[in-house]
Write a structure and sequence with these properties.
The structure is a homodimer. By secondary structure, chain A is of the alpha/beta class. Chain A is built from 8 helices and 6 strands; from the N terminus they run αααββαβαβαβαβα. Chain A has 2 domains: about 50 residues, Helicase, Ruva Protein, domain 3 (Orthogonal Bundle); about 120 residues, Dna Topoisomerase Vi A Subunit, Chain: A, domain 2, CATH 3.40.1360.10. In chain A, helix 1 crosses helix 2.
Chain lengths: ~200, ~200
């Protein structure tokens, strides 16, 4: 499909097609954008690609994304460093920070236990979490793994590992989303909402 | 949505979101690709963006895409330079070349007449086409504009302009696609196929 284009166009289309979810047709449209876009925009994109690839790394403490060795949240002395939330992915931090409610710090596992996919405790940042809990003064660990089988398994595994350290462990509540009508909520969520109903 | 990411990630997401059809969600996924992809792949993409933006231009003769001032097709002495096909877009050349049947040269209008969108003959490469027809020894012009209202209007306009030059003008046939069952062909195409039926 991509022959007959100038060579650099063909190569660019091939590189764009490596982006997640991008096929040759879409890559072609992106290449036409690169062809016709203002020079500054293309130069900016070109430079940022390199910058992100070279400079954005995981925080050495919590494995959040960071341009420095310690991320902005770990560096923030205004936050509660005795409250630690465990999440699966850096994207989860973004979601929680959007909420604006949580003022503690984080630990990113960079994955979730999945025996089916052969992902065990050694493949995610569990050892690093336990080291932090032993070393730092953490009073509560909030586990924020997802509410599917793998997230549940990870929760149970972490609970077993953390209990002996005499640290309070909690899990974020799963239930009916705020503002959502019951008729639109899936069965599993409703079941969980009833099981974990609160006395008022 | 994109706050809380490292600054360069935020900027990269914004640049990716300028690509056609790409929203912030998709741009975010692309940025994660840039973060985790092998350095060579990202560097290659980065370089090609600049290369295409700086070097790929329109052929000075036919307005096909080209890295040189004259495109590969215009430079090819093995092709029939007395047969010229007029198309709307460089992508149309790719499609025709894939067919492998046509051995003439091209002229890209870089658009189509559209009174509704205020696109008149001066906004597309009509003057340049007429200059070529007056200057070069062209025996036949095949008009390959699309078969919609705008393509038809452009065809009629070109026909009127070229006729006085005493050059044979033809138009590519529109009809039932080869290999397509009649039941899957739309009404307009079928109507055209009957109107332009050929005696055998």
């Amino acid at each position: 499909m991509t022959t007959h284009y100038p060579e650099s166009m063909v190569s660019l289309i091939e590189e764009f097609a490596k982006l997640p979810g991008v096929g040759l047709r879409t890559a072609e449209r992106f290449a036409f954008y690169a062809l016709g876009a203002p020079h500054e925009a293309v130069e900016n994109l070109s430079k940022l690609l390199i910058k992100v690839n070279e400079n954005v790394r995981y925080c050495r403490q919590c494995f959040n994304l960071s341009e420095e060795s310690l991320c902005r949240i770990c560096q923030d002395s205004g936050r509660d460093h005795s409250l630690l939330c465990v999440v699966q992915d850096p994207k989860d931090i973004i979601a929680i920070e959007k909420g604006g409610e949580y003022r503690g710090i984080y630990h990113v596992l960079l994955g979730v236990l999945s025996p089916l996919e052969g992902i065990g405790p050694k493949d995610i940042k569990v050892k690093e979490l336990l080291n932090r809990l032993k070393k730092d003064a953490i009073r509560e660990v909030v586990i924020g793994t997802s509410s599917d089988t793998e997230g549940d398994a990870t929760f149970l595994y972490l609970l077993k590992q953390i209990k002996p350290l005499k640290i309070k462990v909690t899990r974020i509540a799963h239930g009916v989303p705020v503002g959502s009508a019951l008729e639109f909520v899936d069965k599993a969520t409703l079941a969980r909402a009833f099981k974990q109903r609160q006395e008022v």
